[in-house]
Amino acid sequence: MTAPFVANPYSPPTPFKARAYSLPLHSRVHLMGILNVTPDSFSDGGRFLAPDAAVAHALAMVEAGADIIDIGAESTRPGSTPVDEREEIRRLIPVVREVCRRISVPISVDTTKASVAKLALEVGASIINDISALRNDVEMGSVVAEAGAGLVLMHAQGPPQTMQQAPTYHDVVAEVRQFLAERARTALEFHISPAQIMLDPGIGFGKNLDHNLTLLAHVPELVSLGYPLLVGVSRKAFIGQVLGRPVEQRTMGTAAASAMAILGGARVIRVHDVGAVRDVVTMIEAIRRRQRHPSPAYQDPS
After folding, report:
1. Is 236 a catalytic residue?
2. Domain residues of the chain, as ranges?
3. Considering 177, 183, 207, 236, which one is annotated as catalytic?
């Protein structure tokens, strides 16, 4: 006889709301497939610049098991150069419009500009993935609130151009946790519902190898804030540092780091290799269903 399903003790209590979508992050892990429509992203820059290629890749990721597609038109790799609003719109909006027309999963847009977010929402996007956590553009919170969109708030120490120049923390877990709590409070001040907020520790964004590994080892402390946690480790440099692998050979390292994040309570994994990490999620959740006594959730000592 099969044991009853045991809910992940770190699960958020309610579905994640993103416009017309209600994502059951409280009952299963979701995968966010990465679609870069940029010429200079660290892993796949230039491959999906053409709208037809971008749409085909989005469809392939959904077929492989992606629950969300995250589309970005400005590279945020270390040392990247910002693009202006007009160029970001030129790259992004035709792809978002066509992907929204062709697939049924929610579309997330990776941008820090309120004007870009507003246009993307008008053509069908449902989530804004703001790596500045509402710090880059004072209008972003209002745009998200008015649309009823989902919002991802990410931690970063410094802008992409300089963030990897000797990042320093006294206690990386405590500082990232405090930052995310503060940015969530800011989002609430814009009358964005708690059910619309997701947090991201920003692996690789102003962090060295030790910082990244330490954050992944302490995911439960970030999850204890009460919001669903998104973790993006896909093909990142710290995996190359540990394994000595180039970008194109980091799938297994990505899978292992993603598994640790999931076991710690992450509810969304942002990834390039959707099929491989979907297998990881499926195995973890199959085993978790047999747990009689899941580990207790992290308790905040304060």
Report:
1. yes
2. 29-288
3. 236
Q: Which CATH number fits domain 29-288: 3.20.20.140, 3.30.1320.10, 1.50.10.10, 3.20.20.20?
A: 3.20.20.20
Residue in this structure with the two tokens 């947090």, named with its chain if needed: 199
**Three-state secondary structure readout of 109-126:** EECCCHHHHHHHHHCCCC
Is the four-CA dihedral 64, 215, 117, 36 of positive or negative sign? negative
User: What pLDDT digit, counting tens, does each position of 29-77 carry?
Assistant: 999 999 999 875 545 555 666 788 889 999 999 999 999 999 999 977 6
CA distances from 207 to 34, 159, 219 (A): 21, 12, 15
Strand boundaries in 203-277, DSSP class E: 230-232, 268-271
Q: Tell me the Ramachandran region of residue 79: left when phi exceeds 0, alpha when psi lies from -120 to 50, beta otherwise.
A: left
∠ CA 15-18-23, rounded to 5°: 35
- Mark whether 270 is an active-site residue: yes
Which residues fall within 8 angstroms of residue 187, CB to CB, at 6 or more apart? Answer: 134, 141, 144, 151, 153, 196, 197
Distance of CA 167 to the CA centre of its chain: 21
* Mean predicted confidence (pLDDT) in 138-158: 96
Kindly compute the dihedral angle of the four CA atoms of residues 177, 238, 37, 137, in this order, to the nearest 10 degrees: 30
pLDDT one-digit tens code per residue, 194-205: 999 999 999 999
pTM over 0.70: yes
Q: Which of 207, 267, 270, 278 is catalytic?
A: 270
Q: Which of 184, 219, 227 is nearest to 201 (CA)?
A: 219
Q: What type of residue is 201?
A: P
Average pLDDT over residues 6-32: 84
The two three-digit tokens of residue 300, written as one number: 């905040």
